Amino acid sequence: MALLDLNSGVKLGFNHKDERLSLLIEFAGCDAPELFKRKLAEMLQKVPLLESLSITIRGTSRDVFDVRPLGQFLPPSLKKLKLQQMDACLFVLWLDAVRKIPLFNLRSLSLVLDLISDDLLITVVHSLPHLVPEAGYSSILYSCRNLKKFEVLTSPLLSDSVIDNMTGVARSVVELRLSSCSLLTSEALEHLSSFRKLEVLDTSGCESIGDQAPFYISKVTTLTRLNLAKARITNVGLALLGAGDLPILQLCVKKCEKVTDKGIKYLFLADRKICKTLSVLDVGYIPQITDATIFTIATAAKALTDLSLRFCNGVTDAAVQMLMDRPNHNSSQLQLLDLCSCRGLSAEAIMLPLPQHAFHRLRWLGIGLTDIVAKRGIFTAICEAQPRLVVCGVCCDFGCCDGWQCNKVR
To answer: Where is the F-box/LRR-repeat protein 15-like leucin rich repeat domain (predicted)?
Structure first.
């Protein structure tokens, strides 16, 4: 390692080994941004094989920290970059520019920042995909033999092979969340039965997952929470899942658009464990769900407390009346009911006078984007009779007004 003093507080150091170069730059004691940029450009143009670059700026004004011109001179060979005392906003702008450089192959990034923002992290992921390659996930898995929770969100590079590499930690993992990973397919779950302690599986947004996945999932007898939102599963997949006889407490098949009433019926056939254990069910955004599904759920799901039907236009007044009129039935267990944007409901779906035990246990009712909202007088009466009930008149997420949002119909 050598250090060069190029006047006015600029120090440049470099290390040469096996024709691979690393460069350390220190800029201190002088508010001279133009000098900094010029000296930086001169040095970078002399090291076309540069692999590692570290820039440290000390004791100067923040105007000096604009390294956007750096992108004009970075060699394609650069793999490691470290920047100290960086302005986050300027770095986001800079990164937007450098990602367009051909062959840019950065694999290691270190920053010293006052603030880490969502914009920064999103830009890093989108601009520098090699910072989240499969090899990185595999390294984590190999070094965490007692891993209990593994979560990856919106990774465009995560593929089935990463899950194959989890065999070493399969016996310890309790939660596995792989949300919006576009390359993930059903085959990734082929060896899921080796996860002896798995309780939570979330593949929401993985749109390449199909009917084979529920077959593999059905072998995991410890599973209690399952999220298959946006999967390409059909009624066949739900039949396979039901055949596994799992003690599922929470199930989400939201936006599984190929599912119909028959699929929900297959899930609850033959008084399986799910009939006794399921408490939370989300079948929202499925166009082919109708009143028949509500009748099946109300009859079979004996422990159901939370039900989301949002954007299910096939649900009509008849289903709502059935849920209200049977005080000693399974449906009387409901505590959260989401009917948001169920266009098949009329303004008269909930009528006064109410049955004596209607909404007896209900704590949250979502009616946003339905004609029912116009009947505010009804909900005033309901809320007076049931003061613990929250009626949400906008299309909030399932169970709002919990301290984070307050959109009530009173």
So the answer is: 132-401
Q: Which of 270, 303, 336 is the last residue of a domain?
A: 303
Q: Which pTM was predicted?
A: 0.71
Mean pLDDT value across the chain = 80
Burial code (b: 16+ CB inside 10 Å, e: under 16) for 223-250 equals bbbbbbbbbbbbbbbbbbbbbbebebbb
Residue 340 and residue 362 in contact, taking contact as beta carbons nearer than 8 Å: no
In Å, what is the CA distance from 15 to each residue of 12, 51, 56, 104, 138? 11, 10, 16, 21, 30
CA-CA distance, 204 to 178, in Å (whole number)?
Answer: 7
Average pLDDT over residues 304-326: 90
Which residues is 149 bridged to in the sheet? 175
DSSP state of 25: E
pLDDT digits (tens, 9 = 90+) for 59-68: 555 545 566 6
Residue 280 lies in a domain: yes
Residues 195, 199, 200, 206: is their CA dihedral positive or negative? positive
Count of domains forming the chain:
3
Distance CA 230, CA 238 (A): 14
216/240 Cα distance (integer angstroms): 9
Give me the CATH number covering residue 272. 3.80.10.10
- One domain for residues 5 and 109: yes
Do 134 and 210 lie in a common domain? no
For residue 121, the enclosing domain spans 1-149
What interhelical angle do 317-325 and 291-300 show, nearest 10?
20
Q: How far is CA 95 from CA 88, 105, 117, 256, in A?
A: 10, 13, 14, 37
- Of the candidates 303, 318, 347, which is a domain's last residue? 303
- Residue 18 located in a structural domain: yes
pLDDT tens, position by position, 141-162: 777 778 899 888 888 778 888 8
Q: Cα separation of 313 and 340, whole Å?
A: 10
Instruction: Give the Cα separation of 360 and 334 in Å (integer).
Output: 9
Residues 361 and 228 in one domain: no
